[in-house]
Design brief:
The complex is a heterodimer. Helix content of chain A is 31%, strand content 23%. Chain A is built from 4 helices and 6 strands; from the N terminus they run E-H-E-H-E-E-H-E-H-E. Chain A has helices at 19-30, 49-54, 93-104, 128-147; strands at residues 4-9, 36-41, 57-64, 71-77, 109-116, 157-158. Chain A has a 6-stranded mixed beta sheet with strand order 2-1-3-5-4-6. The longest helix of chain A has 20 residues, at 128-147. In chain B, strand 12 and strand 13 form a beta hairpin. Classes of the chains: A alpha/beta, B alpha+beta. At the A-B interface, helix 3 of A face helix 4, helix 5 and helix 6 of B.
Chain lengths: 159, 475
């Protein structure tokens, strides 16, 4: 199995923004494979460039805004340098991939799974729509782990 | 020409949200400058009614960059409420955590926020004057920055269980001893971290000559300095007495027990900012302006008790005859402090008893009041609580490093603006330097106003009648 890095990020105290964090925590409880590293983070920081450069593939999991709460989207991410001054102590997946390539000579294939949030107000719980989507994202991530290096997989699943 | 006002909004590459307004006279010269912190959080109020034992973990939420600093100052205030002397090894472990925090936060400030200006130049293309520009121009420097911050973050995680908002530091000590495995893992990373710190410092010293103009006008004026001073007058981030030093290098007040801070420090609120301004009480405001943080710490101490940092400190102190006054040298001081922190971590991690399991003293509330003071990356941090007979918080006062520095930052913006701003049009050259002087202080506005989000800067140019003449926004 290739070396897979899963990065779920978001603020678990801001309702659905915590989707990535919650999914990563659940995957940590389910996956016991030394070739799979799972990180639950509040935000993406430049230090991630190092582990990203050493992985064969990376799966980012995040919440997003949009018209259809609970909608899951999956897309391939290509390295792209951040816009002016946008890269200080937080970053985007594309910027981290570009940084990994610039500093360590390697950017692995990467997928971003996002779930459209319904409620980002102060809360430590996911909305019902996003909670259902979180179950689906956990299954998607497990499938991706098991499938090995066959990314990207299918696009768009509806919870 | 009518009197005008320039506003920079938001200020970028700092922690939090702020705005700068520059008021011009009829001749287009800068008459006054204001650094507005536009975020508000209110931690001092909403902790009222909470059990004091919750305060360290609650206060750590003030900041995602330096939660460890708040944990430590808060836990120290709670130790006083418990009226306990915490186990020696608990103090040692808290010290190591604070040092690791100093390394990661200083690395963030120097490598991520300020190195684009320092490596690429203040007048370089703003489109590439960011960390990506640094990666392209000097990938080795960028890798060093990432590695050093990673080292600090990992050390925090190994000690406290997680990097951000760890709950390991508690009233009475810490809740777990250090394992041999984690001690060895931190020690194993130290040689590389030390090598990075030394070569970055060596590189920076060769670059300073390029910034003569910035050294001259970046908040370079006489003020007092304040910081904790440990036994023997040495640099100490965890414990000691407060010392005030004047611009000539003379001690103004010394041996101040942290619990007596209110006799020497007062705060005022200005209507144009949410950030309170601290001043030296005996001199009043604005005469009592002082600075804290790396520059202040290296000014107030009599020495450093680690070999490499001590040597660097002696060289640093040769920069001025009295105190080192230019805030541009905050960068220099920050690098020396990284070196010190790493050396000190090594001393403490190899000390006998570092693996002792007795790391917490237990008690209930025995005092109705407690003051906790420690040195955070940006300067002296004061937490002061009063509790009722049930141990519930009745009153809290937090004086944060950025608040101590507020008056000096304002004056620094004025000095830079007077030097670089002329006429009624904003230029990139002027804008970046006004921001850069603030970055030297590495302010943390999330901490100091107790607001969420990142720091951006906005500048507006207004006539004295209030007409908007120009506006810039940096992100």
């Amino acid at each position: 199995m290739p070396n897979t890095l899963i990065v779920g990020y978001g603020n678990p105290l801001r309702g659905d923004d915590g989707l990535g964090w919650h999914v990563a925590e659940r995957l940590r409880a389910l996956v016991r494979d030394p070739d799979v590293e799972i990180l639950a983070l509040h935000q993406l920081t430049p230090e991630l460039m190092d582990p990203i450069s050493r992985a064969d593939r990376v799966i980012f999991i995040d919440a997003c805004e949009g018209p259809v709460p609970g909608e899951i989207q999956e897309r391939t991410i290509e390295p792209q340098a951040a816009a002016r001054a946008a890269f200080s102590h937080h970053a985007t997946p594309a910027a981290l991939l570009a940084g990994a390539r610039a500093l360590y000579g390697r950017a692995p294939q990467a997928t971003l799974i996002t779930v459209t949030g319904a409620d980002f107000s102060v809360s430590d719980r996911l909305s019902p729509e996003v909670s259902a989507a979180a179950d689906a994202v956990v299954r998607m991530a497990l499938r991706l782990i098991l499938q090995g290096a066959t990314l990207p997989v299918r696009l768009r699943t509806r919870a | 020409m009518p009197r005008q006002k320039i506003v920079i909004d938001p200020v970028t590459r700092i922690e939090g949200h702020s705005r700068i307004s520059l008021h011009l006279d009829e001749e287009g010269r800068v008459e006054e400058a204001y650094f507005h912190v536009t975020q508000f959080r209110g931690f001092e109020k909403f902790c009222e009614g909470r059990p004091f034992s919750e305060m360290p973990s609650l206060m750590a939420r003030i900041c995602g960059i330096c939660p460890v600093s708040h944990l430590i100052a808060s836990a120290k205030a709670c130790d006083e409420i418990l009226a306990v002397r915490i186990p020696e090894n608990a103090a040692r472990l808290r010290r190591i955590l604070n040092l690791a925090q100093m390394v990661q936060s200083h690395a963030l400030s120097f490598f991520y926020l300020s190195s684009p200006d320092l490596l690429l130049g203040m007048d370089s293309d703003p489109a590439t004057r960011n960390v990506f520009g640094v990666m392209e121009a000097n990938p080795a420097l960028a890798r060093d920055g990432v590695r050093l911050r990673q080292f600090g973050q990992q050390a925090i995680e190994r000690l406290a269980g997680k990097r951000i908002h760890p709950a390991w530091v508690v009233p009475g000590g810490v809740n777990e001893p250090l394992s041999a495995e984690h001690r060895d893992a931190i020690l194993a990373g130290l040689p590389e971290a030390l090598a990075i710190a030394q070569r970055t410092l060596d590189w920076f010293k060769t670059e300073i000559e390029r910034f003569r103009e910035e050294v001259r006008v970046f908040a370079n004026f006489p003020t007092m300095f304040m910081g904790l001073v440990g036994p023997g007058g040495n640099l100490d981030y965890y414990d000691g007495k407060l010392r005030f030093l004047d611009a000539g290098g003379h001690i103004v007040a010394d041996g101040i027990d942290p619990s007596e801070y209110a006799s020497h420090i007062a705060e005022i609120a200005h209507p144009w900012t949410y950030l309170k301004t601290a001043f030296y009480k005996p001199l009043g405001y604005p005469e009592g302006i002082y600075r804290v943080g790396p520059l202040a710490r290296l000014n107030v101490v009599d020495g450093i008790d680690t070999p490499r940092a001590s040597q660097e400190w002696a060289e640093f102190r040769e920069l001025d005859r009295g105190a080192v006054l230019s805030s541009f040298y905050y960068h220099y001081a920050r690098l020396i402090e990284i070196l010190y922190s790493l050396e000190k971590m090594e001393q403490l991690l190899t000390a006998p008893g570092i693996l002792d399991a007795h790391v917490r003293a237990h008690a209930t509330a025995n005092n109705s009041e407690g003051v906790g003071v420690s040195e955070a990356p940006r300067g002296t941090l004061i937490h002061h609580y009063k509790v009722d007979r049930d141990g519930l918080i009745e009153w809290a006062n937090l004086i944060i490093a950025t608040g101590h520095n507020n008056a000096a930052m304002n004056r620094g913006v004025l000095q830079v603006a007077r030097h670089f701003v002329h006429g009624n049009k904003l230029t990139e050259r002027m804008l970046n330097r006004v921001e850069a002087v603030i970055r030297t202080f590495d302010p943390c506005l999330s901490c100091s106003t107790h607001a969420d989000g990142r720091l951006m800067l906005e500048v507006e140019l207004r006539s004295h009648e209030g007409e908007l003449l120009d506006r810039c926004q940096t992100r």
